[in-house]
């Protein structure tokens, strides 16, 4: 949430989430699934960010051992989905069993590449 290239993080156990108290009341723990809205100017910057990640696979499968991402813009040309409520710069993250510091460094280097293009 503190990174300058992150506009917003959606995660029920984040104190900034509007339903944080409800989440704490209803759940003992919260998993490694969250959404980030990044400060990309266009789809190309989202693609640069995602393609620069070395420790995250681009896939849909929540619950495995590896860390994953799924950018909303990857569904833009689908006629069978209504994506009006999903901004192009929204990315769903799943955090697997990798070391948090390694994943943080990977995200930081991807933001650097996104900003340098």
Topology:
Layout (H helix, E strand, L loop, with lengths): L5 E5 L9 H7 L6 E6 L4 H10 L4 E2 L9 E4 L18 E5 L5 H17 L1
Parallel strand pairs: 3-4
Antiparallel strand pairs: 1-2, 2-5, 4-5
Helix pairs in contact: 2-3
Descriptive overview:
The chain is globular and about 40 Å long. The protein is an alpha+beta fold. The chain has helices spanning 20-26, 43-52, 100-116; strands at 6-10, 33-38, 57-58, 68-71, 90-94. The model has no long low-confidence stretch (mean pLDDT 89). Helix 2 (43-52) packs antiparallel against helix 3. A five-stranded mixed beta sheet has the order 1-2-5-4-3, covered by helices on one side. 29% of the residues lie in helices and 19% in strands.
Structural class: alpha+beta
Q: What is the 3D form?
A: globular
Report how far apart the termini are.
Answer: 23 Å
Tally of helical segments: 3
The SSE string, one letter per element, is EHEHEEEH
Given as residue ranges, the uncertain stretches (5+ residues, pLDDT < 50) are none
Helix content: 25-40%
Strand content: 15-25%
* Main sheet: strands, sense, barrel: 5 strands, mixed
Oligomer: single chain
Report the radius of gyration as a whole number of Å.
Answer: 15 Å
Task: Count all strands and give the number.
Answer: 5
Strand order of the largest sheet: 1-2-5-4-3
Mean pLDDT: 89
